[in-house]
Structure formats: C-alpha cells, structure tokens
Amino acid sequence: MNYRAVVNVLGKIMFMEGTLMILPLIVAIIYGEYDTLIAFLIPIVILVSVGLAFGVKTPKNKMLLAKEGFMICGLAWIFMSAFGCLPFVISGMIPNYLDAFFETVSGLTTTGSSILTKVEGNPYGLLFWRSFTNWIGGMGVITFLMAIVPQGDGQAMHLMRAEVPGPKAGKIVSKLTDTARILYILYFILTALEIIMLMFSGIGFYHSVVTAFATAGTGGFSVKDASIAGYHSPYVEYVVATFMLLFGVNFNLYFFMILRKFKAVLQDTELKVYLGMVVASITLICINLLSTGKIAFETAFRDSYFTVTSIVSTSGFVTADFEQWSVFSKVILISLMFVGGMAGSTAGGMKVTRIVLYFKQMIRDIKQMVRPRQVMSVRINKKSVDNSILKGINTYLVIYVFILLASTLLVSIEGESLVTTFTAVVTCFNNIGPGMDGVGATSNFAHLSVLSKIVLSFDMLAGRLEIFPMMILLIPSTWKRRV
Amino acid sequence: MNVIVIGAGKIGKCLISSLREENHDVVVVDIDEQRVDRVVDEQDVNGVLGNGTQCDTLKEAGVENAYLVIATTYSDEINILSCLIARKMGARHAIARVRSPEYVNQIDFMRNELSISMMVNPDMSVASEISRILKFPTATNYETFANGKIDMIEISIKEGNNIIDKPIYEISQIYGNEFLICAVKRGEEVFIPNGNFIIREKDNIYITGIHKQVVNFLKGMGILKDKVKNVMIIGGSKISFYLAAILAKMSIDVTIIEKNSDRCKFLASNLPEARVVLGNSADHKLLIEEGIDRCDAVVTVTDSDEANFLVAMYAQNLHVHKQVTKINEPEFFQLYEKVMGESAISLSQVTSSTIVKYLRAKLNANSDQIRNLYKLMGGRIEAIEFITPNDADYLGKPIHTLKFKKDLLVAAISRKKKIIFPNGDDIIEAGDSIIIVTKSKSIRSIEDIFV
Predict the structure, then answer these.
(1) DSSP H or E segment with residue A412
(2) Is B105 exposed, middle or buried (0-12, 13-18, 19+ CB in 10 A)?
(3) Residue B252 and residue B131: Cα distance in Å, rounded?
(4) CATH superfamily, region B2-120
(5) First to last CA, chain A
(6) What is the pLDDT of residues A177-222, one digit of tens each?
C-alpha cells in the first residue's frame, strides 16, 4: 500500500472541495445571508489547508495500483461527505452531525433522501450547497480531479475505474484527462440547457439552477417542501422529467452524437432497452392510473412520465404521491429502482447493461442445457462479452443481494413496517431518494435511528461507487503496508 | 497527435511509453485481450481488441484521424499489410517493423509505390549499435554527430580515476577544452553539469568531442581499452546474424554460440567467416572451451534477459574487457547498468528512439531541422542535433546573451569543417549543426531550446 500517494490524491480532492465551496459562499453573499458566511468559511479554511498540507508535494513513488485506486475512491467520498456537511452543522441548519453527514452523503451520492422535515425557509446559500453536492457527485469527484489535474500514466486508470459506474470503464478518447474533460463539458452543456429551459417557466434563476443541478446529478434534492410539485407547473415537470431521462443515458453516446456517429447510438442495445423499459413502464402505469377513472389523461400521463423517469434515472424528484397508486404500479416502480439508468450516466442502480447481460446469460445457460456441446457466447452491441466481465457482474449481483439483505436486517431493528424497512434500503442503495410507506414520497428519513442512518449512509456510498471501493475499505488486509 | 500502435509486445509497449512521454494520443491494437488490458492499465492510452489488418479494427481505433500508424507485431507480413490498409484508410504516415532483410531491401519500392513512410528493423539497428560500441570498447555507449565528426561517449568513473573529486573546469584545464562533459548520472539522478560540477566515483559521464581528443582524454586517464579483435556472441538470433556480418567486414573474429542445431546450420552456411558452435550458454565448460576468457568482448543477445545478464556477469568475472548485453526489461536494464558498470542495449529502446525521432522531425514545421536524436541514460536525457535555419533572431549573437532553458547545454557546434565547443563568446550561425544535451523531453525544434 502506497500510503503517501493515497494521501496526496486525497489532499488534492480536499483542496478541490474547499474551492468548490466558494460558490455557495458567493450565493450566500448575494442573498445577504451574512450570518451563514462563517459556516462556509470555516470548512473552506480547513479543506484548503488540509489540501495544501498533503496535496501539493508529489511523493517520490507515485505508483497507484488497483488496490490504491479503490481505496482512494472510497476514502475520497467519505471525506468529502465528512467535511461537506460542516456548513449545515456550523450554521445550525442541521445541528446534529450525523444527520448532516447523512444529508451530505445523500447529496454527493445523488440519492436525494433527506432528513429535513422542512426545506423551505432555510438560507439560500446552504440550500444551494445542498443541491450543488448533487451536481458534484453526479459525474464524480475523481473524474473532476482528472479533468483539472492530469494524473501520471499508469495510475489514473485505476482511479477512474473505481468511480465510473458500469461493468467496464472505457475511455472515449485516448487520454484520460481529455476523457474526463469531455464528460464534464457534456455534463455542463446539458445542465446549462436545462437551466435555460427552466428559466422560461418563470420560476426564477435560483430555482432553475438548483433544480437543474439536482436533475443533472440525478440527485433529486429540491428546495421546495413538495419537491417539483411545489412549483405547480406542468411545464417544469415536463422539462425536469425529460432531462432526468437524458441524464440517465450513457454520456459516451452524447459524444458519439457530436462525432456524428448516429448509427452507433441508434444501434446501442443498452439505449434501446433503457428507452423500451421507460416507455413500457409509462404505458402500464398510465393505463393503471386511468383505470381508476378519477384523473384526466394528461395528468395521468404527466404523473407516470415524471415518476417513471424520476425512479429509473434514480433522481427521486416527486410530483405525484405514488403512495396512493395501486400495488401494480408500485411494483413496477420498485423493479425500476433496481435497474437504474445506463452505465456511464449519472444515474445509480444496477445499470441497464448489467440487467441486459444477466438476461442474455440466463438465455445462454438455458440453451446450453439443451445443447451441452454447443459453444455459445454472450453478445452485446454485436460484440462478444468476455467471460471475466460476466464473472465480474455475477459476483456483483451476489454481493449486491447480500448487502441488501444485511442492511435490511439492520434497519429492521427500527421496528418500522416491512415496506418502509425494505424500500428505505432499496432507495438508498440504488441512490434514488424516496422509498415507500414511512419513507415514501411525502415523508423523509429524519425519524430513523442512529444505526439506520449509518447503515443507509454506507449503502448510499456503496451504491454510488458500485460496492467494491467500499467493500475494500472493510477488508483488513487492505490497510496492511505490504502485499 | 493521434498515433495507433499495432501490437502490444515488448517493442509496442516501450514505444507507447515513449509516445506518451511526448504527450501523443495513443490507441493500441492487439489480438490478445490480456495484453491490451495490461497496456491500458499501465499507460494512459486506449485499447482496441482485434487484428490490425482488419478495416473494422482500424476504424474503431480511429485510423481516419490518425497521424501515424506503427505496426510492431512479430510478423513482417502483418505489419506491412496493416500499414498498407491504414494508409489507404486515411492515416497520414505508417511505419512497419520489418525483420527480414528481403523486405528491408525493398524500402524504396515500399515508400514510393506503397506509401509506407518508414520501415524499422530493430534487430538491424541493435546490431549496428553494438558494432559501434565494439569499435570503441572503452565507451559503454558510443554515438556520433555531424556525420561522424563528433563523438559522444559514455564512460563510468571507477575507483582510482584521476578526475574523481575534481570540478569540471579543472578537468578541462588538464586535458584541454576540445571536449565537454555534458551529462552525468549519479545513482538514480541525472545532471547536466556546469563548470563547477564535481565528478565523483561511480558516476557515469557523457563526453562529447572530436574523436582524437576524446581518445587522448581517455588515454590520459589511463582507461583506454585496446581494439577489439575477437568477439564471442552468445545466441544466434537475428541480431547476432546481422552483427556477425558487420563484424566480419571489420575483420574481427567472431564465435557464435547457439543452442538450436537448425539455426546453427543456417548461421554456418550464411556466415562463412564466423565460427558457429552448437551449445547452451549456461554450459560454462563449453564457454571456457571456446575461449570466452581469451575474447576481447562478449556480446550476449539471446532472447532471455536473464541468460544475457548471467553470461555477461560470468564474462566480467573472467576479466573479459568488454561486455555488450541486450536487455529488454527496463527495470532489469537499470539494474544491469548499476551492477555491471557497463551499458546494456534494449531492442525496444533503440526502436522507440528511432520512431520518436522520426515523429518529432515530421511534426516540426521545418521538418529537416532535427538531424539526430539519441536518448541517453535510460531515456532521461536527450542529445539532439539541429541544423540552424537561414534566418532567425538568435543567429549571430554571442551565446552568453541568449537565454537557454534550464538543464540544457549546447555541447558542440559544427560549422563546415570546424568543430566548436562553445564558450560564452561563440555565436551560432546559419547552417550550423548544433548539438544540445537536455533533460527536457519537449524539444521539438530549435526555438524550443530558448526560454
């Protein structure tokens, strides 16, 4: 274990977070919230000085292997959350440190589960920071680091791989720094586009920006108590829903579109499945809603469109109280929670590509039973998938289920209903936001115990980083100097 | 620049790291998934799995926008074919690694009719590099500039040498200033020394100068070795075949030890002057029988780094004056130089510096400027020879008024028949050939040497 190099990269990330916090500070100044300035200044000073102390001097041995990559990734996100929650604590907006930590983890991992019982009325600067964490976490902190500080050859890939969602991290251009920059530029353009679109609705610049941040990261933090429903504007709902859908798409595909490789985009299996799944879910839920005969077609369509895109992109914005929907619709939503968005997007969940591969593997193995001697390969996008990747995603599923059950068991000590317990874990683990029943669309996570909040925080991080970086931190041998 | 490297073997990998040092965008193509994965892990490059002779694979690697395609697989035919296809698909330049002499002889045809820009034959380059070192056995490395008028040699300073603990200005007072100590390696560090730099024991130093002066200097220090008259080559690879042919022309006696009997037959029938012996390099009794201890030099060029290393050590132990060893693994390479105090030759390094030189010259606006480029001390120092243009603002000014980059030294100026080892008052004129030594790896043109 090369501790020096690990500490160095972590130092750089701390410095970066300190600099990013200047933005909400400016917002606070603009809105004249001078009593909250100190809440930003203290963490900025801490982060910047920690960053300068550890991140400036590059160690002699810069070698980072897979283990260090995972470790840095896991620790970076924990530290980011641990320091990122300080403004909430110092300002007294969320006086309890653990609650603030939960909120920040939820923000950075783009989950959007909140412990705030009342959002409106809090200072603008702090709420801006809360939404901004969604945006930072969306594309990833290490990717951001790559985009601004080029890392040496032979070490960067391990870092990037640990953070980028999906079974195989691929670079879209040869250099990692350029790849990270392209991703962030795309991310930036899409976010700006949403801000402009939202401006037309007349909800104002501040609301447009924070909503766009939360959408871009597929986070789902809203500055309204009633989430997006609080704007009472079908236009806003359509815009947000559409962008949630867009941010659930693999960013590489946008790059292909810029390169005018439309054929590659149109033929992408994952995209087809993703869109197919969304359309099918909307249709089913819409019919289901209409069958009650109580709502008009437009409302039913809008509610189902919004809720499905919100869940599938793992954003977790709310317009309709789906608590009131039929069990059939709810089961569709829970299934979507597990699937999540596409690999290489800002969404959470298991990712469509894994689901596709599970299905294809299943079909292959069933066929294999009948024709034991035939050699068959699993193909996606007309290319055969290597067995090591299949093995990787299968292991992932096993650990995924294991963590899901273990967390559910721990949260069940709480004594809430089965649906509350289970969906709380599912929603956190898949980085969605609201669960059902006690943690549903109109409730929040404030009433949970300390243990549950710690478990759920872990789940959120594990979900965002796709389990392995967090699991590796739990293995004692990781911390040994040798091996 | 976008560069595609086909083949992620030893040469491919070394080439990729040189290209990355030059900050090119590299895509590597190989048919072995594990090899692609490893390169992508170790270097900041993109990998494409597939055959470099297939249009689809090349397309995926982005051949339309590639500036250069380099094919380095084991097979000449695959390399040539890949280059042909790549050129047709839009790559600006293509370089093929070609091992068999038959193809190398057709280079003009390949360049003019098939538009392959260059063919590199690593075995051939290594063989000629070794033959050059054998011409000057005192040096652990030997390069020439300005059409052979200026020598650049590397020597290691061993115990008892009379320049130890002396600053460089004092050394030139003793031995004259017709040569220059232009680079020093001490332990893991490399320096571009100034006049006050003090030479220590176990340093490796690079000297530039006119051949005669350099020889006098070495004689003065009492370390000049006799001319090599007989050489034992361990391993009957392609390198050894080329080398034996060159050495035969220099009328040096050659003994080749090779363990494969078919290969021995081939060598014996094609190299009438050489003595070919069937046997294993690990068989020390055989080596003694064949007179390894009475050789002037032992060249170890088998496929195995370990075997080369061991035999070279064995030879040094028997007081053979000169060992030249081929070592490919970079880590091993440094270990060898450290342990043996002799230089090793790496097939991949020789190849990659040839290609990097080519690429830099091509990318340079006035493309003929770079005439020679050598990577010294494991690639950490570069010696570059430029031709000055006809018109530039630094011409005609005394050198001490020009501001050079840090860790950069103008080692020599060759002007028509004159060779100048510049001090502050000398000037650079149009059409000069100037040789610089630098730690910087970003010198592309002569303008880059100034601040």
Answers:
(1) helix A387-412
(2) exposed
(3) 10
(4) NAD(P)-binding Rossmann-like Domain (3.40.50.720)
(5) 7
(6) 888 899 999 999 999 999 999 999 989 999 999 999 999 999 889 9
The C-alpha atoms of residue A307 and residue A287 are separated, in whole angstroms, by 14
ipTM: 0.76
C-beta atoms surrounding A287 within 10 Å: 13
> Both ends of chain B: CA-CA distance in Å?
24
CA distance B184 to B192: 6
Report the residue of A60, A159, A174 to disrupt the B interface, i.e. the one with the largest count of B CBs within 10 Å: A174
Residue A247's SS3 state is: helix
Provide the CATH number for the domain formed by B350-449 in this structure: 3.30.70.1450
**Alpha-carbon distance A178 to nearest alpha carbon in chain B (angstroms):** 10
Tokens 């600099």: give the residue: A19
Q: Do domains B145-221 and B230-320 have the same CATH topology?
A: no
Asked whether A266 and A331 are in contact (CB, 8 A), the reply is no
* pLDDT score at A483: 46
* Neighbour tally for B161: CB within 10 Å: 17
Those residues whose C-beta lies under 8 Å from the C-beta of residue A84, and which sit 6 or more positions away, are A17, A21, A43, A104, A107, A108, A129, A133
Q: Is the domain defined by B145-221 classed in CATH 1.50.10.10?
A: no
- B162 vs A152, residue with greater confidence: B162
Structure tokens at B175: 């031995």
Closest CA to A208 of A258, A176, A165, A243: A243
How far apart are the C-alpha atoms of A89 and A212, rounded to whole Å?
A: 25
**Least trusted range by pLDDT, from A164-168, A396-400, B45-49, B215-219:** A164-168
Residue type (1 letter), B331: E
CB A16 within 8 A of CB A143: no
Q: By CA distance, what is A160's nearest residue in B?
A: B41
- Alpha carbon distance B292, B343 (integer Å): 19
Note the pLDDT tens digit of each residue in A437-450. Answer: 888 877 888 888 99
β-bridge partners, B323 = B298
Query: Of B2, B33, B42, which is closest to A154 when you measure between CB atoms?
Result: B42
Express each pLDDT in B339-391 by its tens digit: 887 778 888 888 888 888 788 777 765 545 777 778 787 778 888 888 888 87
Give me the residue spans of the domains in chain B.
2-120, 145-221, 230-320, 350-449
A177 to chain B: which residues are within 8 Å by CB? 44
In which band, very low, low, confident or very high, does the pLDDT at A457 lie, cut at 50, 70 and 90? very high
Q: Decide: B234 and B257 in contact? Cβ < 8 Å.
A: yes
CATH 3.40.640.10 is held by the domain B230-320: no
Contact between A156 and A176 under an 8 Å Cβ cutoff? The reply is: yes
Interface test with A, best of B44, B46, B57 (most A CBs within 10 A): B44
- pLDDT at res. A364: 92
Residues in chain A: 483
Q: Which of A86, A50, A96, A65 is nearest to A1 (CA)?
A: A65
